[in-house]
Amino acid sequence: MYCIIGANGFLGSYILKSILNKTQERVVACCRDISLVGDTLKDERITWKNLDICDFDAVNSFCNEYKSEDKKIVYLAAYHNPDLVEKNPRTAWNTNVTALSFFLNAMENVSAFYYPSSDSVYGNSIDGKVFKEDDKTNPVNTYGKQKALAEKIVNTYGYQVVRYPFLIGTSLLSAKKHFYDSIVENLKFGDGMDMFSDSYRSTISFKQAADYLVDLIEMGDKHPIVNISSDKALSKYDVGIIIAEKLGVDKNLVRAIKVEDSEGIFVAKRASSTIMDNKLLKSIFKLEEISLEI
């Protein structure tokens, strides 16, 4: 049985789809409000459960309900937005650190536990630095620091972490668009899109991110940390050009802007570029290359 904590987000929806496509297992999917789960995330093999991970009584009840069953857990629940984390560090700490630690200690009979993390734990890729899994972390904001600590908690408990770069792809959620959908809509209607050209990430799609994770779980991989990313560092402008080419629209509709000229957009400091080494991932799956697929 799979158990997905925080399953109704962009990545969670793709993970659910990947599990259904790649396995015959049933899934218990949790989120704070299942009334918001659209029909696209419903399937006879998925049991949806209301769960607020900061409600420890509810967490204990949930863990006791599934105590006897062998579980493969993907823990996605988090206070994600770096700007909101910066504004509300105590609330973020309760979600990203305290609740995670409580859940780890409450849940029994776990055969696999994977914690999806972020390239934000690395910090800046100074002079084109490509970060490997065992490099020292140096996050530049509170969100990255909390994710780095959460990783240590998960690893110390004996479980696995995967680190993701910027993820992109069409939303599977009926009520919520992703950045990708906005780009497509603007380009199709000829409105164009301003996109950063001076900040680089090892971008992959939500589908790739989900499929590699489910494959790691199914093969029983036990590396403490695995970077799941593409070979090539791309700016968001580069991604926009790729999308324009896919749509067959004028690439000039994608307009390059610079982060350094966009002060005031973000509250929390961001790493200018974070580039990830994916050699471990390629060695695990015996791959020659990994490119963004959208």
TrEMBL record:
Domain of life, source organism: Bacteria
EC number: 1.1.1.133
Keyword Iron: no
RmlD-like substrate binding domain boundaries: 4-287
Annotated GO MF terms: dTDP-4-dehydrorhamnose reductase activity
Gene Ontology CC annotations of this record: cytosol
Entry's Gene Ontology BP terms: dTDP-rhamnose biosynthetic process
Keywords carried by this UniProt record: NADP, Oxidoreductase
Top-tier EC class: oxidoreductase
Pfam families: RmlD_sub_bind
Keyword check for NADP: yes
Pathway it works in: Carbohydrate biosynthesis; dTDP-L-rhamnose biosynthesis
Family membership noted in the UniProt record: Belongs to the dTDP-4-dehydrorhamnose reductase family.
Its biological purpose: Catalyzes the reduction of dTDP-6-deoxy-L-lyxo-4-hexulose to yield dTDP-L-rhamnose.
Name under which the protein is recorded: dTDP-4-dehydrorhamnose reductase
